[in-house]
């Protein structure tokens, strides 16, 4: 054995939040427990959920609402993972692409 542990990315599709100028959350929390149970039975030991945040200063994104929605989803995902016995990898996915400054990136990453 070489020590490699299998994991899974259980999110489904990106969903654009209405009224949030293109900012998104991931779909799939409603059926997550059932899917994670299957993945665990197949040998997975960890899971990683995407939480994409794009910095768009011109449109005021990500808004506090978008950040809170994504972080709430990450917390729910982590609880469900732990409940079925998988290790959750919790990492907001802040895009480095764009014309924002380093200071703006730091501000979003530390909210």
Automatic annotation (TrEMBL):
Keywords: Glycolysis, Lyase. One of its GO terms (molecular function) is fructose-bisphosphate aldolase activity. The keyword Lyase applies. One of its GO terms (biological process) is glycolytic process. Its EC number is 4.1.2.13. It catalyses: beta-D-fructose 1,6-bisphosphate = D-glyceraldehyde 3-phosphate + dihydroxyacetone phosphate. The keyword Lyase applies. Pathway: Carbohydrate degradation; glycolysis; D-glyceraldehyde 3-phosphate and glycerone phosphate from D-glucose: step 4/4. PANTHER family: FRUCTOSE-BISPHOSPHATE ALDOLASE. Belongs to the class I fructose-bisphosphate aldolase family. This is fructose-bisphosphate aldolase. It comes from Chlamydomonas euryale. The lineage of its organism: Eukaryota, Viridiplantae, Chlorophyta, core chlorophytes, Chlorophyceae.
């Amino acid at each position: 054995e070489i020590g490699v542990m299998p994991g899974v990315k259980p999110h489904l599709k990106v969903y654009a939040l209405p009224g949030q100028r293109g900012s998104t959350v991931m779909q799939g929390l409603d059926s997550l427990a059932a899917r994670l149970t299957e993945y665990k039975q197949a040998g997975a030991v960890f899971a990683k959920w995407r939480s994409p945040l794009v910095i768009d200063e011109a449109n005021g994104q990500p808004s506090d609402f978008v950040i809170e929605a994504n972080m709430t989803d990450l917390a729910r995902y982590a609880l469900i993972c732990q409940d079925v016995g998988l290790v959750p990898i919790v990492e907001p996915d802040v895009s480095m692409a764009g014309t924002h400054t380093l200071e703006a990136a730091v501000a979003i990453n530390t909210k």
